[in-house]
Amino acid sequence: MAPSAPTPAYRRLGVEERRRQLLEAALSLFAHRVPEDVSLDHVAEAAGVSRPLVYRYFPGGKQQLYEAALRSAAEELQHCFDEPCEGPLLRRLAHALDRYLAFVDQHDAGFQALLQGGSVVETSRTTAIVDGVRRTAAEHILSHLEVTEPGLRLRMTVRMWITAVEAASLIWLDEGKQPPHDELRDWLVEQFTAVLSVTAGRDPQTAALVRALADDA
Amino acid sequence: MAPSAPTPAYRRLGVEERRRQLLEAALSLFAHRVPEDVSLDHVAEAAGVSRPLVYRYFPGGKQQLYEAALRSAAEELQHCFDEPCEGPLLRRLAHALDRYLAFVDQHDAGFQALLQGGSVVETSRTTAIVDGVRRTAAEHILSHLEVTEPGLRLRMTVRMWITAVEAASLIWLDEGKQPPHDELRDWLVEQFTAVLSVTAGRDPQTAALVRALADDA
């Protein structure tokens, strides 16, 4: 078997590699332009291939390429939240925010187009992908806080803060990436502890967490 | 001239009244169902007219009716923010939030469908209407705070809080309108002062505001 294997194995790899190459070309275009300004011709040109070849890999055309690129970007973004469960909790949050803000920086126009809504390529599928990222972010935060059964008030607080971070990212891009990355990161961490403290006044579960965070710092 | 005026004047009113009647029927349907579940037949039935009559007034069909209903709802929502410039500032904010939460309560399914994104009727026009409401909310807050030239950090704080309020409203609807209206209102006001206080540590303009709010309470 061994001597005959290389050719099909090479071919399979070729298909996957080609697919990945087209996806990367699409990602870099969709990251820095609004979807309206990206055509399959641009993708073909960026990848150095013909337009029919792009269609062979993505018969659904631009919408399919966009969704595949978005799925790939969402995976990359979810990796930003991977943070070892060691060291002070707020420092872990700052590290994750560092990676998140670097991602926003690198995907500026695409990030804005996607989250500002009303995009031509927005569908219930793209919304589900974005919601999946938000859900993962909330799960990561709660798991670092070692909460397995978060009550309503704690869940709301975490989700409101995640939404506020998204809003901050969009304004940050609008404002020419001001305030600077490090200031924005620290400010967002401070807001996290502030809103948790407010909720602590209404919710014993969150109050216990706030005490743990204070001891941990 | 006077004796001949009534007839055309009556006709013009009739057209406007009919239009308003159709719009109100559409609004009450779009408020409590996702747009996918509202048809022109439903609107015609709710208004007690024929489907062709609905088309005569809204030749763009469901999308046009949806956008007109949304524009009308947005106007109503913007009226929620009208609050006289008297009395303690945080009490004014609580009053506006009371009206806002009542609006969310009355337009539950439509509010969710609109803001959760990926809706079949979402376009750049519907997004612009929603963004207009957010902008008006921010302007109202800054005008009550008597800030005419808000700096970046203060603007970001206000817009982040507005986004967090939206997120809270959606979770509130998801969770069967829990926590209760009054608790949610007070909690959101507390979050507003908490995030302003955090920003005050980084921004002299916001620090002055926080001092004024403390004196005002």
TrEMBL record, chains A, B:
The keyword Transcription regulation applies. The keyword DNA-binding applies. It comes from the Bacteria. Keywords: DNA-binding, Transcription, Transcription regulation. GO terms for molecular function: DNA-binding transcription factor activity; transcription cis-regulatory region binding. Residues 16-76 form the HTH tetR-type domain. Residues 39-58 bind DNA. Transmembrane segments: none annotated. SUPFAM superfamilies: Homeodomain-like (SSF46689). It holds the Pfam family TetR_N. PANTHER family: HTH-TYPE TRANSCRIPTIONAL REGULATOR RUTR, TRANSCRIPTIONAL REGULATORY PROTEIN (PROBABLY TETR-FAMILY)-RELATED. This is TetR family transcriptional regulator. It comes from Streptomyces dysideae.
